[in-house]
């Protein structure tokens, strides 16, 4: 299992492969929500905590929306579209300054929560590959 971070320039949008739908099938929605929750809890303690909602209530909503998205993208119910509309992920991230460092912290926090998951490596790898590449789309700043 390789949690490699693909080097990339800000402003590029390499083609993305969606995660293997078995990611959701084997974990189930609740485990995906737990995973996202743990990821956000790490972000909240990280050097990019300032990007995320400061209140507990806002933070819980952020977890919910993010999990809705990942469940949907893995072939589950369209929770995100129903509650938030079309994903337009890069546009939704544009109000936040996301540089190379922010991407690295965001991904490394995912590596921490994915590592102990007891699922087949190729399924886990497909999820990682998806966030590794799609996170490039969210970068929007060359400033430090
Ligand atoms: C490159 C590193 C990334 C950073 C620093 C980042 C940061 C953020 C921030 C600050 C927000 C707004 C607060 C919140 O709702 O949590 C957000 C929202 C969100 N992000 Fe990211 N993000 C990154 C990558 C990604 C990726 C790769 C995905 C999807 C694969 C993603 C999915 C989402 C979703 C679904 C939302 C909620 C949007 C909404 O409900 O309007 N993010 N992200």
What does this structure look like?
With 144 residues, this protein is an all-alpha fold. The protein is built from 6 helices and no strands. It has helices spanning 22-44, 56-73, 79-84, 89-93, 100-114, 121-138. It binds protoporphyrin IX containing FE. Protoporphyrin IX containing FE binds next to helix 2, helix 4, helix 5 and helix 6. The site of protoporphyrin IX containing FE has 20 residues, from helix 2, helix 4, helix 5 and helix 6. GO terms for molecular function: heme binding; metal ion binding; oxygen binding; oxygen carrier activity. Belongs to the truncated hemoglobin family. Group II subfamily. Heme binds at residue 65.
Order of helices and strands: HHHHHH
Major sheet description = none
Number of domains: 1
Unreliable spans: none
CATH architecture assignment: Orthogonal Bundle
Question: Care to count the β-strands?
Answer: 0
- List all distinct small molecules, including ions and cofactors, that are bound in this structure: protoporphyrin IX containing FE
Structural class: mainly alpha
Oligomer: single chain
What gap, in angstroms, lies between the N and C termini? 30 Å
Shape descriptor: globular
Overall helicity: 55-70%
Please indicate the percent range of residues in DSSP E strands (runs of 2 or more). under 5%
Classified in CATH, the superfamily is: Globins
Mean pLDDT: 98
Kindly provide the radius of gyration, computed on alpha-carbon positions and rounded to a whole number of angstroms.
Answer: 14 Å
> Any idea of the CATH class?
Mainly Alpha
Family: Belongs to the truncated hemoglobin family. Group II subfamily.
Keywords: Heme, Iron, Metal-binding, Transport
Binding site for heme: 65
Protein name: Globin
């Amino acid at each position: 299992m390789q949690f490699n971070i693909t080097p990339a320039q800000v402003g590029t949008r390499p083609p993305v492969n969606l995660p293997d739908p078995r990611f959701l099938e084997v974990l189930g929605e609740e485990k995906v929500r737990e995973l996202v929750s743990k990821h956000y809890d790490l972000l909240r303690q990280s050097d990019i905590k300032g990007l995320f909602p400061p209140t507990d209530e806002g933070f819980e909503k952020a977890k919910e929306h993010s999990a809705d998205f990942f469940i949907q993208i893995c072939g589950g119910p369209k929770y995100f579209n129903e509650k938030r509309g079309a994903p337009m992920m890069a546009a939704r991230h544009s109000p936040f300054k996301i540089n190379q460092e922010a991407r690295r912290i965001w991904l490394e926090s995912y590596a921490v929560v994915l590592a102990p998951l007891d699922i087949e490596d190729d399924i886990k790898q497909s999820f990682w590959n998806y966030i590794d590449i799609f996170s490039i789309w969210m970068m929007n700043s060359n400033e430090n």
